[in-house]
Write a structure and sequence with these properties.
The protein is mainly alpha-helical and about 180 residues long. It has 2 helices and no strands.
């Protein structure tokens, strides 16, 4: 039994020497930056933080309890840092996914907009072409009507000349009155 207690004390002393951490005495920083991932330089001491005196089993038990408490607190702090890091990484991953989704949707909508603009420009060009064709057909029809009227006028003039020549040759007056009221 005594040998087990002696081994526990020796183990506690060895662990205390290994776990010795010197807190640096830096002045408090003005800025409130996130130091959750900052690294600190750990300098081991030549002696244990908790000096173990050989007064009795009560002191050894107290030292051992203090050592286990420190160990437990350091494990809790390490777990807390790990959980914070996990939460930060998870949030960053979600933000990246949302950004990628947003960029994808935005690119898709911009492509749709460009395609719609191209279709509208094509429809506009087709409509302009149809209107130009209608104008050309209208112009052609008007030219044809003008040509028919010119031809009719020419015929009417020739007809009038022939009737006038006939009337002059025969000495009779034309059958149709000139003003229609005679």
């Amino acid at each position: 039994m005594r040998e087990e207690e002696a081994k526990k004390v020796e183990t506690a002393e060895a662990v205390a020497e290994e776990k010795a951490i010197v807190l640096s005495t830096l002045p408090p920083s003005e800025d409130k930056s996130d130091d959750s991932k900052a690294l600190a330089i750990v300098e081991p001491e030549s002696k244990a933080v908790v000096p173990v005196e050989k007064k009795g089993s009560i002191d050894r038990d107290a030292a051992l309890a203090l050592l286990t408490t420190e160990k437990r607190l350091s494990l809790i702090k390490a777990w807390e840092e790990s959980e914070k890091s996990k939460a930060e990484n998870k949030a960053q991953k979600k933000i990246s996914e949302i950004l990628a989704w947003e960029n994808s949707k935005k690119a898709s909508l911009e492509a749709d907009l460009k395609m719609t603009e191209e279709q509208l420009l094509k429809k506009k060009a087709e409509y302009i072409e149809k209107m130009k064709n209608k104008i050309a057909r209208l112009h052609k029809s008007a030219e044809e009507k003008r040509a028919i009227i010119e031809a009719k006028r020419g015929e009417d003039l020739l007809n009038a000349e022939e009737i006038a020549a006939k009337c002059c040759a025969t000495g009779t007056s034309p059958k149709k009155p000139l003003l229609g009221c005679f």
